[in-house]
Structures are given as C-alpha cells and as structure tokens.
Specification:
This protein is α/β, with parallel strands linked by helices. The chain has 2 domains: about 5-125 and about 300-310, Rossmann fold (3-Layer(aba) Sandwich); about 125-300 and about 310-379, Dihydrodipicolinate Reductase, domain 2. Helix content is about 35%, strand content about 25%. The longest helix has 20 residues, at about 315-335. The protein is globular and about 60 Å long. The relative contact order is 0.14.
C-alpha cells in the first residue's frame, strides 16, 4: 500500500520541490490532498498535479483524508501548530526550514511524537547529497584525520522588495533573519559533519534592508572535537555563494554552490604525503544532487516503512536550532554563549530575540551591541 501524503501550502516551495519530489517517488506514495488558506491556490495546485482533493483547513483535511505523512511548505509561523495537529492525528511530518521559531516550539512539537512514531523531521536537503554522505563516512572511520578548521558561508542577495512579503524579516513570524531563514541550510550541513558544538561568539547587524531582524551575522564556533569554525550569513552579497570548507589533518574538503550541489561542486585536496591512490578512494561512488528534495523525501519514506526515526529530526534536527539561538544570544548580549545555557527558563530558549523583541531590533539596527557587563557598569 502506498503511503498517503498531504501537502500543506501550495506556494513556490510546494510546487517547485514538495510536489515534484513526491511524484518522483512513484507508487511508493500517493498524494491524496493539498491544503492552503487561499482556496484558489489550493484548487489550482490540485488540478495541476492531479491530486484528488484540496482543502483550506488542516483539521478538515486530517479528518477527511487520514494521511500517513504531512509535508509542511508554509511560512515558519505556521509550522508548530500544523506539525502538532498532524502528529496528534497519527501522521508523520516533514516540515520546511526553519523548523520552528524557537527551541521551545521545537520541543513542544517533539512532545507530541510517539516512542515509535509518528515523528517530525525537517527539510535540510543539503546533508543528503552523495558527497556529503561520503564525507560523513570518511569522518566516521577516521580516514581524513581530525577536523581542525572550518568555514561555513551563506552569502546571498535579497532585494528590498523581498521583504515586502508580510511575514519576512519579523521576529514574530520568521523567527530571525538570515541566521534562521537562509544560513541554516549550510549550518545544518556543517553540524551533520562535525557533530556537537560547545560554545559560540557572534555579532549581527542590520546594514541595508528594512527588516526587524539582522541582514548580516558572523560567528566563531567551537566544537567538542576542538575544531574551530567561522560562520557568515548575509543577504547583501551580489556574488551569491554557499560554501562549507573543512580542513582535516589529511585533507581539505570544500563544497561551493548556490542552492544545491552535485559532485562537481566539491574539491578534495590531500595534504602533503597522502598518496594519489588513497586520495582517489575518497570520491563518492554515486552522484546524488542536493538541489532537489528527492533524496530526503526518499529517506523519510524509507524510515516510515521501517518504523525508524529519520535523520534531521529529534536531537539531530534540534542541534542547528540551538546554534542559531546561541548566535542570537551571543550577538544580543555581547558575550560568548555555551550550548548548555540554552535550556527552559533561558530567554533565548523561548525566542531568538530574547526577552524583548523591540530591544533586539534596536540593538541590531544600532550595530553597537554592548556586553551585559558594560551595561551593568553604567547602570
């Protein structure tokens, strides 16, 4: 029996990625319905993709169609309530990024998962390309030696008109700026490679766009392995690029692309003394692109059939949310932040903006974040 799927949201990401990726899975899935608050958009998507039903209300869809899997292609503010409703109805969830607006929201969703499913997972497709998969295997078996130095860059360009969409660039509806909505893809890829992080120091500013949140952020992150990494996220960079580079003891491995890569976007540079035959053995055997959602959608369906938790869910999906929260806390308090601080009761557990969104906006716009120690000295 095919897995019954419902797609929530019928905008660009749904039509460009979710629905085509589900179609690529063939008879393993059956898209039984779509939903959108805009009735004409829902009806048009159902007609275009040959889907038998459309709805404007999620509760109505869940009751009528009883899907096994719900994919969320909606603005971030809608993720939490939709994910919880789907899990409570017994459906697994695959949601667009960012997963939620806060760590508190992420944990609230997780509380509605079952011990053996249903589970909620999140779209971080760049970790599923063949080169990233191969690199993880090489890291795990020690072939490249210890990771030492890394760089993670999301340098994109968004015009002022981009922020005319009402939910963009607002704490209450998007959760944050490029740290949350754009750089989170490369940051997740980085974390999927290097594992647990321990502390972060960050700065942020709003330099050129009319937005409540930052349009640029920078950070230095320390990993449990001892590796150090710089992270830059920008929406002001005309020559757009996405890049992750890791210097290991025995090689530098780097990927540079924009919105998706194949093997040709990766370079593998052996350190002096590594023989050519060994270096050649590092190359991935397959060439699976990360430019579509198909590999991750396939992984989720595989996990559903086996009754296993998917990657990019649970603690594995939460780690990048913790890093984003740590970056905002560091930038807005003017000090380094340890990962262990980001727990229930901490202001930045509840909101990326901390206790006062208006103050967060004022600080980021001013570009002169002062440490809490300096503020106390002046009080």
């Amino acid at each position: 029996m095919p897995i019954r799927v419902a797609v929530i949201g019928t905008g660009a990401i749904s039509r460009g990625q979710h629905l085509p990726s589900l179609a690529a899975l063939g008879d393993r899935v059956e898209v039984v319905a779509v939903a959108d608050v805009n009735a004409s958009a829902a009806e048009a998507a159902a007609s275009e993709f040959g889907i038998p039903a459309w709805h404007t209300d999620l509760a109505e869809l869940l009751a009528a169609e009883k899907p096994d899997l719900v994919t969320l292609a909606t603005p971030p503010i809608a993720h939490k309530d939709a994910a919880i409703a789907a899990l409570e109805a017994g459906a697994w969830v695959l949601s667009e990024k960012p997963p939620t607006l806060s760590l508190a929201d992420y944990d609230e969703i997780a509380a509605h998962e079952g011990e053996n499913g249903p589970f909620a997972s999140y779209v971080f497709q760049h970790r599923f390309g063949s080169a990233a998969e191969r690199l993880r295997a090489l890291i795990a078996d020690g072939s490249l030696g210890r990771p030492l130095v890394a760089q993670c860059d999301t340098l994109w360009y968004r015009t002022p008109d981009y922020f005319a969409v009402p939910w963009r660039g607002k704490w209450a509806t998007e959760g944050g700026g490029p740290t949350m909505g754009h750089g989170i893809h490369q940051m997740d890829t980085l974390l999927s490679l290097l594992g647990e992080w321990t502390d972060v120091t960050a700065i942020m500013s709003t330099l050129a766009r009319d937005t409540e949140t930052e349009d640029v952020s920078f950070a230095v992150v320390r990993f449990a392995s001892g590796a150090l990494c710089s992270i830059s996220n920008s929406l002001l960079s005309p020559r757009e690029t996405s890049r992750v580079r890791v210097d290991f003891e025995r090689a530098t491995v780097e990927v540079e692309h924009l919105y998706g890569y194949d093997n040709s976007h990766w370079t593998w540079t052996p350190a002096p003394g590594v023989d050519a035959e060994t270096a050649a053995s590092w190359a991935p055997a397959e060439d699976v692109s990360s430019s579509t959602h198909v590999p991750q959608f396939t992984h989720v369906v595989d996990c559903m059939e086996r009754g296993e938790r998917p990657r990019a869910s649970g603690d594995d999906g939460r780690r990048v949310m913790e890093l984003a929260a740590g970056m905002y806390k560091s930038a807005l308090t003017g000090r380094s932040v340890a990962r262990g601080e980001l727990v229930p009761g901490d202001d930045f557990y509840a909101s990326m903006a901390g206790p006062d969104a208006a103050r967060a906006t004022a600080l980021i716009h001013a570009g002169t974040i002062r440490s809490t120690r300096e503020e106390a000295a002046d009080a």
